[in-house]
Amino acid sequence: MPLLALIPALPLTGFLVLFLGGRRFSRNVIAGIGAGSVIASAVFTLLWGIRFLQSPPAGGAWTQSLWQWFRVESLSVGIDLRLDALSLLFVFIITFVGALIHIYSVAFMRQDRDYARFFASMNLFVCSMLLLVMADNLVLLYLGWEGVGLCSYLLIGFWYEKPANCYAANKAFYITRIGDTAMAIGLFLLFKELGTLSIPGILNQAPQHFARSASYSTLIPLLLLAGGIGKSAQLPLQTWLPDAMAGPSPVSALIHAATMVTAGVYLIARMHGLFLLSPMAMSVTAVIGAITLFIAGCSALVQTDIKRILAYSTISQIGYMFLALGVGAWSAAIFHFFTHAFFKALLFLAAGVVIEALHHEHNIFKMGGLRQKMPLLFYTFLSGAASLAALPLITAGFFSKDQILWYAWSAGNGNILLWAIALAGAFITACYSTRLLLVVFWGEAKTPVGKFGGRLIYLPLITLAALSLISGFIEWPHNILHLTLFSDELQQVLPATILQENHPPEFLLQGIAATATIAGIYMGYHWYYPITGRIYRWQAGTRMLAFRSFLLDGWKFDQLYRTLFIQPFLYLTRINKNDVFDRVYSGIARGSVSLNRLFSASQNGSLRWYIAAVLIGILFIVTLQLLL
Amino acid sequence: MTSFNTNTVLIVAAILFVLGLIGVLTRRNIIFLLLSAEIMLNAAGIAFVAAGAKWQQPDGQVMFLMILAMAAAEVSVGLALVLQIFHQHKTLDVDNLNELSD
What we know:
The complex is a heterodimer.
Chain A (H helix, E strand, L loop, with lengths): L5 H16 L5 H28 L6 E12 L2 E10 H24 L6 H20 L3 H19 L6 H32 L4 H14 L6 H13 L8 H4 L5 H10 L4 H8 L1 H5 L2 H24 L3 H22 L2 H28 L12 H4 L1 H15 L6 H15 L5 H26 L13 H16 L14 H6 L15 H23 L5 H5 L3 H11 L4 H19 L4 H23 L4 H21 L1
Antiparallel strand pairs in A: 1-2
Chain B lengths: L5 H21 L3 H25 L4 H31 L13
Helix pairs in contact in B: 1-2, 2-3
């Protein structure tokens, strides 16, 4: 059995070295340590992944107990790592995409003052995320969960001189905290019910236990779902992710697109045993995913900031994963995570290049004409956008999204309504991907294009572009080609998807999905192709503008929360400015001060006065003695 | 030994004590304060002796000897303090020596 601990330990070492001695090293050394540690992790993952696939271990997992973390009564929590097919996939994405993004960052962050701090935080993030997915018990998972939240905070606020960035970092931290608290309560309830927090233990015991007493069988998965919603930016806790784009582009690519935001998907897939026991929790998951994917997709349609478009698109794509989880299409959700990680990381990295080349211009309507100026970037971006739009048969995004669409109707929990929303989402996705591509790369250049790029920038882009085209080929729809390497492997961990009895024929749904995609691409072309550009004439209407600004602000969720929570809270703080409870304490203070005045008046320094006081005291005591 | 009335002696002691007390309360010069305190100590000593004589016990006289020794010690320390006070403040008036007031 390989030494599993090495995979998270390498980035941890990188973090410690950079954190403790970062300022003393030269930039080359920092880059070597920061990127090297993650690359080494990726190499080990690849080697052991091949070994895992060639000779699967007994029980489908390698486990390794490092040491006991703490022990209270019957609760014993160890630093135990576990690598099965599901975590192997996540570890692969985290280390491999992470390594590519680290390579990109070596060049991208070259000019930054805090080079070492950047790589230290990124390494800590990779380490925490690896702990999260390799944890054998939920406490260790929670440690990683909070660790990635911390790193997300640190990296969103990386350029901390700008107050807006710190505000965005705080917002991300607070809002995910709501979900984390719910998740912690869920863990407490799980321990109270089952008496264990080890993941295999929970999955083994849950069916018998909750068959006997179903008191918490819905509440616990709902609380875990709330944790996942917070981390994965789903409705109603999605508002932090668009603002999280304040961080550097590699951070957005790694943390806020490829890995951390999918932690919620991982958690639900990991705890599938609990979710399967509660049909309600499954339905809630599916409905949240469906609504989120639609709402976020609509918002992505009108954004003008290139990174915010991608952020809303990320929320929307994670919505697809939640929908798939909710309908019971476990491996389809993970498959979409797999392809999404490639193409979304690619899009963010490419967007970073665009922003740098155009001197920090974020507004896509001030870009344009990059197709001729940066052809290599254009082709990589094109493959990413095509994959996001799920262009049929040639992109990875098609294979994963088509599977979700198919299961949204035909899987056990699926129904036509979920399918319709997902289909509308697919149309919108294709539409905004086309819009993004056309506005940024066609037309005339509106901002002078600077020089930006290099081998280290383009190597990850090209690798990810290739992967976002071909990575879908490992899992084909059943009716086209019987090749399902991906779900076969995941079958060891996740239950197979159960189909409804009378579901529509698969090819029909595939045809509709492909048509929706192509229609979406055509609509995007129709509206935004610079020569026709109907949307510019459209924009004149006031009602249209109001609707656009409604979508632009992400369906006004921020304003809603401001009126619902922030303003009442501020109102309460204002009326409570002279704190009610404070009155008691300030009363005590004032009382002691006045007593002090009283007694210090008696200390007048006159000797005779003292003697008389002593005399009076004695007389008083003597009189008392005589009287009593 | 002529017999005596314990009450008479105690009354004398009380008068002495009150005299000393009035001295302490009314005098302004520290030296007179010390003298008045001595008078009060002596009043207490007389009361002890009278009590020892009444119950035919030596304790009263032992106590008086102790008071005598203590008074000597007190006076020596007290006079040294008085000297110091006069040295620093150039006055022995207690009403002016109220530096310890709040």
